[in-house]
Amino acid sequence: MSYKTKYEILRLDKPTKKWIQLKRQTTDNTFLYSIKKSSNRGQFYQFRIRARSFCGNAGPPSNVVTLMLAAKPGQMRTVEVRRDEERCGVVVEWQPPSSDGGRQIISYDV
Questions:
Q1: CA 20 to 30 Å from 53, out of 2, 18, 40, 91?
Q2: What is the DSSP string of 51-93?
Q3: In-domain check, residue 34
Q4: What is the Cα–Cα distance from 101 to 72, expressed in whole angstroms?
Q5: What is the CATH number of the domain that holds 22?
Q6: How much is the pTM?
Q7: Distance (Å, whole) CA 91 – CA 103
Q8: Helix or strand or coil: residue 39?
């Protein structure tokens, strides 16, 4: 029989200032927490993890990790497309969005 340690992921609920255990426990050392509502993007989230033994005993929680889920960047401004006869192609130029969503924009899909 394999006795695995379970890990509980806790998130701070800002309105109540209480730590809430997320519904899923894991025996792995990775966990994906999805933010479903786009209105919650750009906000800060605080997490901590606690190990629980096979017998149900919980260890102390980890240090708090604070993350900000970046919002989507704004729309491109002043998009211009023109033909380039010399290179048999087109040139696309634009101004970056006025809002980067809280994180540096590292690439554009054209």
A1: 18
A2: EE-TTS-B------EEEE-PPPP---EEEEEEEETTTTEEEEE
A3: yes
A4: 5
A5: 2.60.40.10
A6: 0.54
A7: 27
A8: helix
Domain count, the chain: 1
**Which distant-in-sequence residues (6+ apart) come within 8 Å of 53 by Cβ?**
3, 5, 59
Q: Is residue 24 very low, low, confident or very high in pLDDT (cuts 50, 70, 90)?
A: low
Beta-carbon contacts of 87 under 8 Å, excluding residues fewer than 6 positions away, are: none
What range does the domain containing 40 cover?
A: 6-68
60's tokens: 């102390």
Kindly state whether residue 98 falls inside one of the protein's structural domains: no
